[in-house]
Amino acid sequence: MEEGHVIGLKQGKQNISLEPGGQFELSGAPLETLHQTCAEVNSHLYQVKAVGEEMGVGFLGLGFQPKWPLSEIPIMPKGRYEIMRNYMPKVGSLGLDMMFRTCTVQVNLDFSSEQDMISKFRASLALQPIATAIFANSPFKEGKPNGFLSLRSHIWTDTDNNRSGMLPFVFDNSFGFEQYVDYALDVPMYFVYRNKKYLDCTGMSFRDFMVGKLPQVPGELPTLNDWENHLTTIFPEVRLKRYIEMRGADGGPWRRLCALPAFWVGLLYDEESLQSILDMTADWTKEEREMLRRKVPVTGLKTPFRDGYVRDLAEDILQLAKNGLERRGYKEVGFLREVDEVVRTGVTPAERLLNLYETKWNRSVDPVFEELLY
């Protein structure tokens, strides 16, 4: 509860939170297999659907709100969002769109040591744009095509560059936990939470807080809780907490939700596939990684890379993911069927929707509310 409003739900190790514009976020429990993860998301969506149907509310698997302008999106009653909403326009032109009109699906994977974290962080960060391309699913804005296959991904490039992006330092030889902490200490703060209230600390430094020099709470030192809160306000393409969070994919329909964790588990939880990815991406330059990050939201799998296209990379990477899942021995490869055709044809989910818009839908986005309804 916050100020008399229900703003979240808990059930065992699962949490549901309300994102700024009414997006629904399930944070699942730590699970061992993709079968368990998929069962969890299925049971969640059945619950959501049952409650939603009673209220005449539907839930949509898309990366960007296809129809309504910012002014028509309801604002969820959470103190931290008020602070973010006032701050966003000062640091980028698309932050409010990010908050209120985008929807992602994320995968969280753990690591066993600092070295394991470094390997997984580098591999997943280099490949995040490839995942963005395969799962691109946000081609509409305010009732028409928006010029992007993943507008959601593009929006992050001008939200707040102090706290988002491709983190080039992860590829430095000196990278480890300490370097990430240094980076996080320098990301400007949003707030501290005291006496059930969020205090606006936008632009302040956590380093100052560490020595008791935060003007909002003079003399106070941060708690571990303050630090954990601060870490949730950092939004790079891959985020480090007690696990690694992949943040590059658009929200999508039910059947594709289980494909994303399958993709990353096959690549990162299998030593052989992980090493293959590290070898494949070892000589990618910072400029190449930035180019992929910038261009993939527009051209998806058709983005040129070296002497081929992102689609060629995606084919090799998908094969590594399948091999990794095979070796795990849990019969999980079937979860990747959903993206097989995307990679084989080079046609992203967004392009499929754009084609429907131009043909069967007679240039109306309204049918998307049935097409991608959970």
TrEMBL record:
Keywords: ATP-binding, Chloroplast, Disulfide bond, Glutathione biosynthesis, Ligase, Nucleotide-binding, Plastid, Transit peptide
InterPro entries referenced in this protein's UniProt entry, alphabetically: GCL_bact_plant, GCS2, Gln_synth/guanido_kin_cat_dom, Glut_cys_lig_pln_type
Pathway annotation from the record: Sulfur metabolism; glutathione biosynthesis; glutathione from L-cysteine and L-glutamate: step 1/2
Coiled-coil residue windows: none
Biological processes, Gene Ontology terms: glutathione biosynthetic process
Single GO MF annotation: glutamate-cysteine ligase activity
Signal peptide start and end residues: none
Listed EC numbers: 6.3.2.2
Root EC class: ligase
Main location: plastid
Quaternary context: Homodimer or monomer when oxidized or reduced, respectively.
Family: Belongs to the carboxylate-amine ligase family. Glutamate--cysteine ligase type 2 subfamily.
NCBIfam families according to UniProt: glu_cys_lig_pln
Protein known as: glutamate--cysteine ligase
Organism of derivation: Lolium perenne
Native organism taxonomy: Eukaryota, Viridiplantae, Streptophyta, Embryophyta, Tracheophyta
